[in-house]
Structure formats: structure tokens, C-alpha cells
Amino acid sequence: MRLGLVLFGAGRAGTIHLNNVARNRRIDLLYVVEDDIAKAEKALESTGIATAKVVDSRCTEDVLSDSAVQFVIVATPTHTHEKIVRAALHAKKGVFCEKPIAKSIDAVVQIYNEAARVGKPLFCAFQRRFDPNFVDVRDRMRKGEIGKLHVIKTCSRDSPSPSIEYVRTSGGFFVDSSVHDIDLVCWIVGELPITIQAQAHAFRRDIADAGDVDTIAIVMKFPSGVIAQIDMSRYSSYGYDQRIEVHGDKGMIIAANAKRSTVTRFSPLGECSDVLLHSFPQRYQYAYENELDHFVDVMLGEKELISTKKDAVAVMKIAKICEESYQTSKVIKFQAEF
Ligand SMILES: NC(=O)c1ccc[n+]([C@@H]2O[C@H](COP(=O)([O-])OP(=O)(O)OC[C@H]3O[C@@H](n4cnc5c(N)ncnc54)[C@H](O)[C@@H]3O)[C@@H](O)[C@H]2O)c1
């Protein structure tokens, strides 16, 4: 069975999903809703999908009323998610939405409640849960390969730096990006934190002027005693830097950076290996493919969603607490209430 799809947004994230949709035999792309029609037509043409129509956002209600559409992918700027997701649920379509689903915690809760009411899956697309390296780290840790977990560290440094237009509409670095690391850490640890502390700074003048930060450090303590350290930057000069490390009483596991090739040159001056991957489309290629496959399984009733309302709401709450901790210089207690 093939599922009819509407893709909202054909920008950076939307293009990744568009390419994966083109390779997925269980999906029929019916519409691309994009305000920049020429951009969407060009992206669509490069996939070879000839059947989908490109329309602008004024046609949102029309495409959602098409009974051949079973689900939507929302890859538009964050501030537009809430309206599109609510409209899609109202039309009883499944929703795969780029993070975050909405800018406020109340809105995220309401939207999940609405999805439950209409009985359609709502997925907050944290693709890192589908990265084969990170899945392997979690599986090995769960099997006891490092004994009792003590510390988890993530490092997420972006490349290239996003445009200042993106930063301005992103909801802020904590809600826009820390959510990925927070989700990954809580998913690997299997708990929610009890205390949260964050520091941040804006080294870039335009980011400071936009009221945001470009460098973040988060420390969280979990009920089991595990301590998490999250290290983030909006810009890495040496490529897309994404690493995790788990340390336990019987050892350590690292998921190192992916490189463009495995070639290393040795000379009297030392070793020289290839550069890091450029950005998220390359680094998380398999993760994006896997998360889409997972959602199709869910839509077809073959699997349960890997991430729930509880996860998405907790991640948003923790990200907001991180922001508050940075602003107030306080260590803040977290109590998960749903
Ligand atoms: N999971 C990830 O790794 C990842 C990576 C990048 C971005 N994102 C998320 O994806 C979303 C989009 O980010 P991006 O970097 O692709 O932005 P982008 O600006 O590159 O693309 C957004 C596109 O949406 C279009 N658009 C704007 N309003 C629209 C509307 N109402 N209807 C239809 N199209 C509309 C714009 O014309 C633009 O082409 C954001 O929520 C961001 O947080 C996720």
C-alpha cells in the first residue's frame, strides 16, 4: 500500500525529506506546499517525481481536503508549524513534523491531545534516534558493555552557520537545537533529569543583536546519578562536529565524527585524515531515511511511534528550563509532570 503525502516546505530540511520520499516505495508524493514555487519546482524536478503538484500556502486547506492524502511532512519555519499541524490534524491526516512542533509548551501539549483525539500519529522528528551509530551506542550501553552508566557527553557544533534570518525565526538556540541533544541524552539514559544547569554566550554580533546565543553548555543530573554534559555551537569552522561519549564503571563507548572518507596520509609530520562531513544532510542521511521509514510503518499500523507526547513535552520543558537557567544563572530542579 502506498500512502499519499503532502510535503510542506522545500527548504533545507524539506529537500532532505523530498529526496528520501522519492526513494521510498511506500509513499506517493501528491503535493508540495511551498511559498517559493520556483524553488519547489526545481527541487521536485531533481527527484524525478512527475506526479506531484506544487502549490503555495494559500492552498493548504484544499490539499488537506484531498482524501488521497494520508499524511503530511511539515518542514516549514518553526513559527509556522503550529498552524499547519493543527490544520492537518483537523483534516485527520498523520503528521510528521520537524522539531519543534510548536514554540510553546502549552501548544505542544494541546497539539498532542488533538492528535490523540482524532486518532492520528504525530511525530516530532528527532532523527538522531535513528542514526545507526547512536543506536549502536545505546544498544551496547543497554547490554551492559560499559557496566553502570556514569556520564554521557554530546558535542553538537553546526556547519555551516545558519543564516541570521533562520536564527531570528528559529525560536532560539535552546529550543531550536538543544532539543536534539536533550532528546538523545534522555533517550539513551532512559530517564528524565532532576536538575538542570546551562551557560551560554553570543560570540557573533548579529546573533547577539537578534537576542540569541551561539554557544551553549548544559549539565543535567539524572535520578540514577548519571551526569550529562551537552556542548553546542552554532558554528564549527572544521565541518559538522557531532560526537557522543558514554562512560561507565566498566568502560567507555564513543561515537566519533563521520568523515568524508576513511583515507589517512602518514608523513614525518604526522597523520592527516580527511575532513569532517559538511553538514546535517550528509551526517544524518541514514537517520533521515530511517525516521521516514519508521513513520510509514507507524502509519501502516506495523509499529508504535518511537517518540511519544511525554518525550516531546519533556524535551521542550527541559529546553525552556535550560534557557531560564542561563538567564538566571541558577541550577533548576526538574520534576516531570504530565
Ligand atoms: N531535524 C533536522 O536536522 C533539521 C535541520 C534543519 C532544519 N530543521 C527544521 O526544519 C524546519 C525548516 O528549517 P529549514 O532550515 O529547512 O528552513 P528553510 O528556510 O531552509 O526552509 C523553509 C521553507 O519553507 C517555506 N515556507 C515558509 N512558510 C511556508 C508555509 N506557510 N507553507 C509552505 N512553505 C513555507 C519557505 O519558503 C522555505 O523554502 C525548522 O523547523 C527547523 O527547525 C530540522
Structure description:
The chain is of the alpha/beta class. The chain has helices at 12-23, 37-47, 60-64, 78-90, 105-118, 132-142, 164-169, 173-189, 205-209, 280-283, 285-299, 309-328, and strands spanning 3-8, 27-33, 53-55, 71-74, 94-98, 122-125, 149-157, 195-201, 215-221, 227-233, 241-248, 251-255, 264-267, 270-273, 332-333. The chain has two domains: 3-125, NAD(P)-binding Rossmann-like Domain (Rossmann fold), CATH 3.40.50.720; 128-333, Dihydrodipicolinate Reductase, domain 2 (2-Layer Sandwich), CATH 3.30.360. The chain is built from twelve helices and 15 strands. A seven-stranded mixed beta sheet has the order 12-11-7-10-9-8-15. A six-stranded parallel beta sheet has the order 3-2-1-4-5-6, sandwiched between helices. Helix 5 (105-118) links the parallel strand 5 (94-98) and strand 6 (122-125). The longest helix is centred in the last third of the chain and has 20 residues, at 309-328. The mean pLDDT is 97. Bound molecules: nicotinamide-adenine-dinucleotide. Nicotinamide-adenine-dinucleotide (NAD) is lined by residues 8-14, 33-36, 39, 57, 75-78, 80, 98-99, 125, 127, 166, 176, 280.
Name the structural class. Answer: alpha/beta
Order of helices and strands: EHEHEHEHEHEHEHHEHEEEEEEHHHE
- Count of individual helical segments: 12
Instruction: Write out the distinct hetero groups bound to the structure.
Output: nicotinamide-adenine-dinucleotide
Tally the structural domains. Answer: 2
Spans of at least 5 consecutive residues whose pLDDT stays below 50 are: none
Q: Beta-strand level of the residues, as a percent range?
A: 15-25%
Number of strands: 15
Would you identify the CATH architecture of the largest domain? 2-Layer Sandwich
CATH T-level topology of the largest domain: Dihydrodipicolinate Reductase, domain 2
Mean pLDDT: 97
CATH class wording of the largest domain? Alpha Beta
Helix content: 25-40%
What overall form do the CA principal axes indicate?
A: globular
